[in-house]
Amino acid sequence: MFWISLFFIGACFGSFFNVVIYRLPLNESIIKGRSYCPNCYHQLSWYDLLPIISYLCLKGRCRYCLKKIGISHLVIEVIGGILFVYCFYQYDLYKMIIVYFIAMVLLVIALIDLKTFNIYDITIFILFILTIIYRLLTSFDILDMIAGSLVISSLMMGINIFIKDGFGIGDIELMFVSGILLGFNNIIIAFMIAIITGGIYSLFLLLLKKTTMHSYIPFAPFLTGAIFFMLQYDNIFIF
Ligand SMILES: [Zn+2]
Questions:
Q1: Could you give the C-alpha distances from 173 to 91, 114, 119, 141, 152, in angstroms and in order?
Q2: Which of 9, 73, 122, 193 is least surrounded by CB atoms within 10 angstroms?
Q3: What is the mean pLDDT of each run of 10 residues along the chain (239 residues)?
């Protein structure tokens, strides 16, 4: 029962981040205004907003206009729940809260980039604040933080000099802040993982002829995935 409650709390946060992912690109306030259906604009009641349960009861449709709600809604709520349970199991209380919100902000960055090809400054700023708190709770090694922030972000800027439209400015900002989070060694490994996985993905798309050499692929999902992996790597595999 205890773990189910934890999962449900995490799913509620997931539901909140769904709102963030939807409203941020539209420049709408995230806290003000009740939730509404993006199709018929009908205000939603509390029983429409129960994470996971509402979605399943309504079979993924709006109660009022019956328009299908994207499966991503459900997926984010489930991921929110799983991550909450995982973080609770893995960390002490303070660190758990910080790591959970870092993970969710990374997820928001990845999904908004997928949707809009854009990374919003406010999400980077929140990641920065969480990063500083995380570092205060773990090891506040200033030199490692500075070196980590600069190593990959400056490399990306260097590459951009030679390749026009190489990396987006948002990707570079993301690696700057994540460098503070992970430190010098791990940010380099995270970047390599992102390059390799992103490269394999692009190659697949090219082979399937779903893309051309000149089209743009959102890179943030690969970066954020690798960043979260390396954050865990440090925690799970202590040599
Ligand atoms: Zn509706």
A1: 27, 17, 9, 20, 10
A2: 122
A3: 95 93 89 85 89 92 91 93 95 94 96 93 97 95 96 95 88 97 96 96 87 79 96 66
